[in-house]
Amino acid sequence: MNIVCLDLEGVLVPEIWIAFSQASGIPELKRTTRDEPDYDKLMKWRLGILREHGLGLRDIQATIATIDPMPGAREFLDTLRSETQAIILSDTFTQFASPLMKKLGWPTIFCNELEVGPDGMITGYRIRVEKSKLSTVKALQSIGFETISAGDSFNDLGMIQASKAGFLFRSTEQIKKDYPQYPACETYDELLALIRSAL
To answer: Looking at residue 32, what is its pLDDT?
Structure first.
């Protein structure tokens, strides 16, 4: 039994923090897991910037409301889900993901949770499980699934490496150079073909 595990941002939807960086005019917030492998370090840094500028959850959600899935993402996901099980594994947060899941036809997503104060300021976050993508892939394998994974960033490499097949989708030149053993592609048609070849 196969299950496909997909990253969310950079694969199915644009990067939320990059969009918010542009909307808020704070260039530092463009930094993502493509740039910083240590997610905890990245999030603490982001929360510090939000506090410094007095920005809360509603400000970010207002930007998220304007984000649409990448062209072709919904059709790709619909086709994939008609052929096999698929799940989105993301380091984003339920408070960010819900509007995007609606636009993608409510696929299953496992992600994290923000801690928000009464004033709407983000005070912290709860990671579902350490190394969540890798841990989830291993847990799925432990209950009889063979996993096929695709992502674009440093935090996707664990699940890609642990799966029976793993693919880089619209990744950075550096990651593609450092991990040449994983097929890299740029279009949903190419990704679908790679997944089908592994099923």
So the answer is: 84
